């Protein structure tokens, strides 16, 4: 079976973790600081603040920008649930804007019509590793005085016009084991704003700057030195991982682009896409339904996944909250997308097996 995701870990990570175990400092310490410095320098921001998940990164980034009860945050409905939930955690309301059909990212041309006097921030998601159209988003944010919080949980190292995502606004990253670089559980917030960075550090650690003096309501969302030690090793490998993802994606596209009814990923000319996922659309013209194709691929040893089968605004919990809106492009994408293995452990032979499997299914 070719898996849809697989952590790539070497002896470096194992030795780094053992070293931390020997040190006896298991919680947040020197390794976390080192990881923060290295990550900030990689993304190109002044500060990076480590937390224990991507969800925590989003939650604290929103809080650090002062977002809460009565505020609205505009985001995409076509993302992992954490994107919407992090907004709900703060007491604010997620407002969903439909996606662009080609990129699957929120459509900046539909953004402005969602802005109200309550809007405080825009939360774009760089889905599958493809950056959003940041020029337009930053212009709209500046015009309406809104914060920009980037969900870059799938886009470590992706670039828009040569600039890394996570450095336009306040960046949020995840190091969950399926992501482009991993720590187990883990997350990071990147920013150029000193005040935001300081707030983040307090929020993740019980609202204290000085031990046992609590200036605000904080949480325990700290990263461990064990996770940071893995992250430091992974960060060194990230460019190679991304290069492999990109070349796997190119090989898949070469093999699939001429199949009638299969729409291969569209890449904006001004971006570096890091292919967290390689996601095709299976349109009606393909003649075989997306779900049947998926079953057949699994039968032939190719694992696939649907990211995401239900947009956030259609989730049962969001329906209960009163979301009734129809966002046709996101809903259509949910019915048509299928992600194929593209991660760095996918070999040339695996790619050939995937393409052969499509051939077998079509000729049946
Ligand atoms: C993974 C992911 C998250 C959440 O990250 P966790 O580390 O799993 O909490 C948020 N948004 C997107 C788009 C993600 O892919």
UniProtKB/TrEMBL annotation:
GO terms for biological process: polysaccharide biosynthetic process. GO terms for molecular function: pyridoxal phosphate binding; transaminase activity. The keyword RNA-binding does not apply. The modification N6-(pyridoxal phosphate)lysine is found at residue 179. The active site is at residue 179. Gene3D superfamilies: Aspartate Aminotransferase, domain 1, Type I PLP-dependent aspartate aminotransferase-like (Major domain). Keywords: Pyridoxal phosphate. InterPro entries: DegT/StrS_aminotransferase, PyrdxlP-dep_Trfase, PyrdxlP-dep_Trfase_major, PyrdxlP-dep_Trfase_small. It holds the Pfam family DegT_DnrJ_EryC1. Belongs to the DegT/DnrJ/EryC1 family. This is Predicted pyridoxal phosphate-dependent enzyme. It comes from Pelotomaculum thermopropionicum (strain DSM 13744 / JCM 10971 / SI). The gene is WecE.
